[in-house]
Amino acid sequence: MSTQRGKRIYIIGAGLTGVSIAQEIRAKGIFGEVAAFLDDDPAKIGKRIDGVPVLGPVADVVGLIKKRPTDEALIAIPEASRDNLRRLHQLLEQAEFARIRILPAISQIIDGHAHLIQTREMDPQDLLGRNPIQIGLKESLSYLRGRRVLVTGAGGSIGSELCRQLLSGGAQRLYLFGHGENSIFEIERELRILQEEGVGERATIVPVIGELQDREYMRFILSRLRADVVFHAAAYKHVPLMEANPVGAVTNNVFGTRNLVEAAREAGAERLVFISTDKVVDPVGVYAASKMLAEHIVRLGHGGRLDCIAVRFGNVLGSRGSIIPIFQKQIAKGGPVTITSPSASRYFMTIPEAASLVLKAGGVGNGGHLYALDMGDPVPIRDLAEQMIRFYGFEPGREIQLQYIGLRPGEKESESLTSNGELTEPTSFPRIDRILGPEPDPAPLHSTLTELERVCFFDPAYPDWYRNRLRLRKILTEHIPGMSVPDDEPEY
Fold it and tell me: Checking phi first, is residue 362 left (phi over 0); if not, alpha (psi -120 to 50) or beta?
């Protein structure tokens, strides 16, 4: 603790956010002292704010500071562009600060109120991709005020970020639903600490351990919770892993979704928002097919009071098991960084921006409709890898090698948010488009689900079908164009 008290913190950005953070550091008195603000605004340079000097411009003074080994930099400019963040990160790295922290993007800062608890180590994803849109989150979440909100997969990457932002929506209750006790435990504790530090409003947080695949349980628990709005983020999602476990993928992603939709409708929920994926377009793998069927179930699931909408988007930077943490581990061991193909590309969006847009779409969308988040332009995976290697101070191709390993089962060179039969039209909100195209046909969907159900759940009339992965792939191939059965596919 003595090291903490003797530490000096240089805050980059002398605006309202930076000043708020400085005041909190001073009030707590245990995390060090604010040595100075660094800013590029000529109107602030040379002045003092609460007794703290404002130095600048940043590029001119950052290298002149006589630093102690423990000195830290904290970037407190939540509206900063990606280009500006890259510039600041390079300057602070060259100045050899012991630690570089950052405040989250503007979408996570409500009404200008930032808190020290929200700061974190700077990460490659902060510098990658496009500039996130600025969202008035409190206004966007007004439709949830006083409501009971359930998030499935609440311990996952998207689910947990939905929960963090939902703290600011004025919900009466926030149900954290998941089947992994550790991840639910972690997000519950994090949310309670955020509340203790003044982030968000006083929603009652309720952790719920449960299994989407248990149909009767889902009916029971939804009738007890009486959730008004459901965000369905739970899914098995790792493409090669689901190719190796196809029955599990369909059981969870398809029938778990059907169970949830049916239970929400019977329990009188008003809205269900489904997290879909660009991989549902012309699916070639089991994961993609399972999400496509789930999307159809959701779009046809409205009834009673329930409105169901689906939101498609591409990859999110930094999600668990995604390409960013994989590249980080490969760089940490000295490479090589593996890429499927020289021409492989993907759409990318940060987790906070994706979650903010999903929450917004949940308020502006209409039941039965399908929406897509505007992902910008696809990013070549090679470019992403090279940017990450440079972030960690290495030269790609010289110090850290790139290695091409070929497409894995279930993968494509590139993805699209719409199929040939679909068009998009803008909504009233930036970066949320409505997808126009044919409605799912309930008859073939019912037929497909009936056959798949005999594989996923034991039926005495079809004992040889149970958990038969070859049978499952044949069913998918018969009902979904573009799907095929691998030559070496075993029965079990």
Answer: alpha
Yes or no: say if 211 and 179 are a contact pair by the CB < 8 Å rule. Answer: yes
HSE of 262, CA atoms in CB hemisphere, 13 A: 16
Kind of pairing between the strands at 99-102 and 120-121: antiparallel
Instruction: Decide: 150 and 159 in contact? Cβ < 8 Å.
Output: no
CB atoms within 10 A of CB 334: 10
Please report the domains of the chain, with CATH numbers, ordered by start residue: 2-126 (3.40.50.720), 137-436 (3.40.50.720)
**pTM confidence score:** 0.91
The residues pairing with 372 across neighbouring beta strands, listed in sequence order, are: 312, 433
Cβ atoms 153, 178 nearer than 8 A: yes
Token code pair at residue 213: 């695949």
Contact assessment for residue 281 and residue 418, using Cβ atoms and an 8 Å cutoff: yes
Catalytically active residues are 279
The CA-based angle 303-305-308, given to 5 degrees, is 60
Per-residue pLDDT at 141: 87
Q: What is the largest CA-CA distance in the chain?
A: 82
What digits encode the pLDDT tens for the residues 70-107? 999 999 998 888 899 999 999 999 999 999 999 876 55
Spell out where 122-189 has E strands: 148-152, 173-178
Count Cβ atoms within 10 A of the Cβ of residue 486 and give its class: 0-12 exposed, 13-18 middle, 19 or more buried: exposed
